[in-house]
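Researcher: Sequence recovery benchmark, item below. Answer with residues only.
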């Protein structure tokens, strides 16, 4: 049997990631099985193993793809001709996150377990893209504050990236969570990603200017 070309292998790998993404629209990580991903993509379990060994590896690949899409938006911010004030950069970063709801949803999962259940080579490939996103945010920050020291730039990223992980649950609580919060007497205030992220990012940027 002839071997698949590199292009064919990439397309088949993407098909599995697409299947995972589609299932993730209506199901949780725990509800999705490797078999379901295979069925959605019309792959046998043996065929899946040619690309991924675990469900976690497919989710990691999906997260990697989402980071790649976000990096392109960050590059657009970096290339803007307007002078970046704290308000303008915060608005641009907040909008970039609002455009990447799938990324925020994936970040709300247990990434520690996903990474632990992925092979070293897959994790390394992901970390390279993740580092590229860190570098892209760093360049955006330096465009806002060209005189910033490495410590100041690092401090912003150190606050910004962990903050991203918590956005999705606040903006998109599940029906079960909403019911529990109402029963507990908690006030619910609907906000978009941008409405939640913008003021927080402004504060992070201004904090680094103090």
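Model:
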């Amino acid at each position: 049997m002839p071997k698949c070309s590199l292009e064919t292998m990439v397309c088949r790998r993407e098909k599995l990631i697409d299947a995972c993404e589609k299932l993730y629209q209506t199901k949780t990580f725990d509800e999705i099985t490797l078999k379901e991903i295979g069925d959605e993509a019309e792959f046998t379990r043996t065929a899946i193993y040619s690309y991924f060994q675990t469900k976690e590896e497919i989710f990691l690949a999906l997260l990697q793809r989402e980071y790649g899409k976000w990096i392109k938006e960050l590059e657009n911010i970096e290339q803007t001709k307007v002078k970046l004030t704290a308000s303008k950069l915060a608005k641009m970063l907040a909008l970039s996150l609002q455009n990447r709801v799938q990324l925020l949803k994936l970040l709300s999962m247990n990434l520690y377990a996903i990474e632990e259940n992925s092979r070293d080579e897959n994790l390394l490939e992901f970390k390279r893209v993740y580092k590229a996103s860190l570098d892209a945010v760093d360049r955006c920050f330096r465009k806002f504050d060209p005189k910033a020291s490495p410590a100041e730039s690092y401090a912003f990223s150190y606050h910004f990236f962990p903050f991203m992980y918590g956005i999705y649950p606040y903006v998109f609580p599940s029906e079960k969570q909403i019911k529990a919060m109402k029963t507990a007497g908690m006030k619910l205030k609907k906000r978009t990603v941008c409405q939640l992220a913008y003021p927080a990012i402004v504060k992070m940027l201004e904090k680094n200017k103090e």
